[in-house]
Amino acid sequence: MMDEENTKWTKEWEASSSPGWAMKGINPYIKKYKDDLTKGMDCVKLFFPMCGDVEDMFWLSELGHDIVGVEISAIAIQKFFNDSNLEYVVTPCGEIKGSLYTSKTGKIRIYCGDFFLFGASIECNFDGIWDRGAFNILDNCDLKTDKRNLKKEYINILKSVMKQDCHVFIELVVSDSTAKSDDMQSFFGEDYLVEDFGLVEKYAPEYDSFPFKGFQFFRISKNNKI
Question: What is the C-alpha to C-alpha distance for residues 9 and 7, in angstroms, rounded to an integer?
């Protein structure tokens, strides 16, 4: 993503250590779909794009899973580790033009930098991917660039780091511009199976003041029948 857009999001975190759109607690739907996301296994590698400080990552790591996130704001990452009472180390990461925050146990790694510099050369072979609003962020960009092409670039990064049997969950805010199943299928292509899990109502009080109906969940996997 271009530097000015990254600056916008870092300023959101600088203005408030807990932005209004940052939900507190664990997403009830990651609990509902956990066994699907992890394929029922005890230790898998999970990816959280544009992760912010979501508590879901700590919860899943405590269950035994390896967690990788990418986030532009160092404030959000530091808040995640501090709120989780986790010690961490920070090392430079030239590939993403930023830093890597790693928990002392090594179970959680969060890259601080531009998501669009991330890819299989940095981390890959993910068993599951949980997109909690990252795809929506691209609709809120102020950039003049073609947002559809930006979304395709985002999806291509996800596709490049998936294992063959990886499950991707994408949570979208439901509004007039929300992607429908056909739209999501066009982003992933015919080699992928896109399943629409339907609309759910707002599930946290943090969202009560926001003018949208609820959320729509998609599950995407490689279409092994092709």
Answer: 6
Please tell me the chain's helix, strand, coil percentages from 3-state DSSP, rounded to the nearest 5: 35, 30, 35
DSSP symbols for 55-98:
THHHHHHHTT-EEEEEES-HHHHHHHHHHTT--EEEEEEGGGTE
Query: Is residue 49 within 8 Å of residue 68, measured between CB atoms?
Result: no
Kindly report, residue by residue over 157-187, the tens digit of the pLDDT: 999 999 999 999 999 887 765 667 778 899 9
Q: 168 near 206, Cβ under 8 Å?
A: no
- Asked if residue 99 lies in contact with residue 91, where contact means CB atoms within 8 angstroms, the answer is yes
The structure's pTM equals 0.89
Nearest CA-CA partner of 107 in 43, 24, 54, 157: 43
In angstroms, the CA 73 to CA 112 distance is 7
C-alpha 37/C-alpha 39 separation (Å) is 6
